[in-house]
Amino acid sequence: MRETSSGEALVGTWRPHKPRGPIAALYGSPGPKYALPGLTGASKHDPTKKTAPQFSFGSRHETKTEITPGPSYLIPSNITRVGRDGPPAYSLYSRPKDPKIFQAPGPGKYSPENAGKSVFHSAPAYSLSGRGKEISNIQTPGPASYSLPPVLGNNTVDKSAAPSFSLYGRNKNGNFHEDLRKTPGPAAYKVVDPSVYREKRPQISMIGRNFPPGVSTKTPGPGAHYPEMVTFTRSKAPSFSFGMRHSDYITPLIVEKPE
Question: Which site among 33, 116, 173, 188 is 20 to 30 Å from 105 CA-CA?
């Protein structure tokens, strides 16, 4: 068992060396803040991966429980799985009452004069009933609510309309009483810039006067500069940062117990 320069024990044939290729753990990452989509379930599944067949669990059906008597009821000894066992038994009942004598109606029970329309012909009869409440709420329009379409003018509906003419006002332009003195004069037109139809001339602009810095100009003093922090004109001193407390590439300390 050998030891490194830092005093760590080395076990086996492995020795520290530089990685042959880039390792993801050596570079910084945002950590578990950004999570990849899952590969299980149907919600938020990774679209780049295949989805396994999904099955749903059905609802449990209600079972009707029959309430049966408990062991507190004693089953008679003569009851078998095929029925009652034993000699025939008879019970005593009371004597039934004598049936009543049927009394048919006599001739005087009928009233043929009250038969009415069931036997004799009668004239039609009508009855007057009160007005229903639903009819009184219906407000139908009367005859004066309707009007026939007009037959005059050009907006007829079912009749052919006669030709109609409209009268317009007299036009002032070109009329005999038009005042020709109100026409625009030569000064009413603007002169066209020659740069539009000829070669454009060069244009020169004038800017404000620049004044050199004087005594009243606010300039930074010697205390406003930090020459010790300048790194453009000279080499920068090495700087170090604190890394992770634990690394996945550090071999744990394995101490062999003496036999």
Answer: 116
